[in-house]
Amino acid sequence: FRVLRFLWRATYISILGGLVYGSYGIYLNRHPGEQAEPDPTKKTLVVLGTGWGSVSLLKKLDTENYNVVVISPRNYFLFTPLLPSCTTGTIEHRSIMEPIRNFLRHKKAAVKYYEAEATKIDYEKRIVYINDESEIKGATTTNEVKFDMLVVGVGAENATFGIPGVREHGCFLKEVSDAQRIRKRIMDCCETATFKDQSPEEIKRLLHMVVVGGGPTGVEFAGELQDFFENDLRKWIPEIANNFHVTLVEALPQVLPMFSKNLIDYTEQTFKEETIEIRTKTMVKNVTEKYIEAEYTDAAGVKQLDKIPYGLLVWATGNALRPVVKDLMSQIPAQKDSRRGLVVNEHLVVKGAENVWAIGDCAIANYAPTAQVASQEGAFLARLFNQMAKTDEIQEELSLLSEKQAVAANKELRDGIFGDIKELQKRLRRVKQMGPFEYSHQGSLAYIGSEKAVADISWFTGNLASGGQLTYLFWRSAYLSMCFSTRNRVLVIMDWMKSPDKGFPLVIFS
Ligand code: FAD
Ligand code: NAI
User: Fold this and answer.
1) Which atom, in ligand 2's list, is nearest to the CA of 294?
2) Domain boundaries in the chain?
3) How close is the Cα of 455 to the center of ligand 1, in Å?
4) pLDDT greater than 50 at residue 510
């Protein structure tokens, strides 16, 4: 009885605590403190992008120290790890978006935001040229933003490797609009397949969902899609049940190459049980409106070209450089040999450049292009910039004190100032002692469908590899805790609760 009473009290207190915490988060979100105006006499720090890297920088940056300008065509932060769930409606897209304006109004000093794309960075002149790509344009004639310091956090584009037809016929999975387009196409394929007098071959084609790229994006999407079919489509449109089929095509011998071998095997086994077909060692070479052409090696070791008809094609073959990054690289001789992005040093400064930093998917710092890396890089830069501002402040104070000391009337006064100078010099040395960026890998997680996930987690000195439904609980809690705001967290929980087949009890645990 005592144990039960203790458990009841503990549950009661945690629920109450959760409610208080949630309400306080929402209150803070609605009522930020007074904001100081941006100070144009301070150094202008221009931040490109509103993704994982840039937003993590802005979160921790003391904006009072700089005249901060943010430029990005996307006026919201997107929590990409849950984007695959948006393609099937498990998660509503607004649940994983956070308006950048709402976030910026909480900064101590105001930050300027321009909804525009940086089209060119003139490194010599220290100017970013911008273009408003949105539908509604004003009458502004200037498209130049001057900078003293620049952070490039523009992420990456979808890689197509120049394969013909990909852009015209395939769907990518990087932005909210991509997820919406995929969702629409899944439904369109199902409805068209059940349209009157459709031939059996056409029905088969329309209901063949092909995913190219066996990295985490492709695997997570394939898992979500199969779930959508099992939980909803099969019931809504029973006549498609025999023909709906998901295939994952991967050029390498296995999917999820960044995970441990046993988790790769587990994923492949789970996909088999879920009836998702995996075609490894198969390289797509051409894409047409209704089929893809893929090269594979047959049992006799001979290369063959296979035509694979599809209704929906999702293309998830990784990252490529954005043009603005390519152009900046061409202006800096030290970047000449880099192919994958802006090479940075241990303080994330673009090699061969001064006062230009790069973070996230557009930077090459020997880490995988992940949200984890981008956000840690952003947080590091915020600390660096905060310290740099302190350094400038102390140096200014030091030169003032030196001047005072030079004209001091008597020895006693000079000695006093000397003591202050020594103290400040000590502080300056401490502040300047900022070590290089060190990435701390927390592990890799991926959802693989039917309420299972795989996780390679750094555990003290070793690595813990696990897969299954418990890992799925962990996946949910980890992503819930990583959500940008309390509002996002509440909305994501509500979305999970609305999806009865995805396990209501799992929501309670997560
Ligand atoms: P992004 O987050 O892509 O942000 C780039 C920003 O730059 C955007 O705001 C964009 O609008 C803006 N921009 C683009 N062009 C310009 C321009 N010319 N001028 C100005 N601004 C510009 N990683 C994980 O660690 N865990 C996961 O579970 C995970 N899941 C993922 C799921 C999916 C579907 C995808 C696509 C990626 C996932 N990733 C995950 C990878 C992760 O999202 C990226 O590594 C991360 O977004 C990189 O952050 P970033 O700041 O470099 O770029
Ligand atoms: P990726 O680069 O990880 O994988 C792309 C895959 O496509 C590769 O395995 C490649 O061999 C294959 N491929 C390339 N061209 C091909 C072709 N013509 N035919 C067939 N296969 C081809 O890309 P992804 O999955 O988009 O991920 C990008 C980054 O985002 C990665 O760093 C990844 O770690 C990260 N990410 C992490 C997630 C997580 O941790 N859960 C989820 C999604 C992305």
Assistant:
1) 19
2) 32-156+321-388, 160-316, 399-432, 441-510
3) 21
4) no
Rounded mean pLDDT, 256-271: 96
Three state DSSP letters for 117-158: EEEEEECCCCEEEEECCCCCCCCCCCCEEECCEEEECCCCEE
Q: What's the CA gap between 125 and 120, in Å, rounded?
A: 11
Closest by Cα among 284, 189, 179 to 171:
179
Query: What ligand is nearest to the CA atom of residue 78?
Result: 1
* CA dihedral sign, ordered 417, 419, 425, 427: negative
| Percent of the chain scoring above 90 in pLDDT | 77
Q: Is there a shared CATH topology between the 32-156+321-388 domain and the 160-316 domain? A: yes
What spacing in Å lies between the alpha carbon of 211 and ligand 2's midpoint? 11
pLDDT tens-digit readout, 156-198: 999 999 999 999 999 999 999 999 999 999 999 999 999 999 9
Flag whether the ipTM exceeds 0.95: yes
Which architecture does CATH list for 160-316?
3-Layer(bba) Sandwich (3.50)
As a whole number, the mean pLDDT across the chain is 93
Side chain identity at residue 268, one-letter code: E
Query: How far is the centre of ligand 2, averaged over its atoms, from the C-alpha of 317 (Å)?
Result: 5
- Band the pLDDT of 19: cuts 50, 70, 90: confident
In this prediction, residue 114 carries a pLDDT of 97
pLDDT at 70: 98
Query: Average pLDDT in the 343-359 region?
Result: 97
Q: How much distance in Å is there from the Cα of 348 to the middle of ligand 2? A: 24
Centre of ligand 2 to C-alpha 172, Å, is 12
The protein residue with its alpha carbon nearest to ligand 1, atom 37, reads 80
Please give the Cα distance from 335 to 315 (Å, whole number). 29
Pocket test for ligand 2, best of 250, 293, 447, 474 (most atoms within 8 A of CB): 250
What is the value of pTM for the model shown? 0.92
Nearest CA to ligand 2 atom 32: 369
Task: For the domain covering 32-156+321-388, report its CATH number.
Answer: 3.50.50.100
Query: Lowest mean pLDDT: which of 22-31, 154-163, 457-466?
Result: 22-31
Indicate which atom in ligand 1 lies nearest the CA of residue 373: 25
Cα–Cα distance for residue pair 327/330, rounded to 1 Å? 5
Residues near ligand 2 with C-beta < 6 Å? 161, 163, 212-218, 220, 249-252, 257-258, 283-284, 316-319, 368-370, 444-446
Written as six digits, the tokens of 291 are 């089929």
Segment 206-228 shows an average pLDDT of 98
Ligand that lies nearest to the alpha carbon of residue 157, given by its number in the listed order = 1
Ligand 2 atom nearest to CA at 446 = 41
Dist CA 132 CA 267 (whole Å) = 43
Strands 245-249 and 277-279, how do they pair? parallel
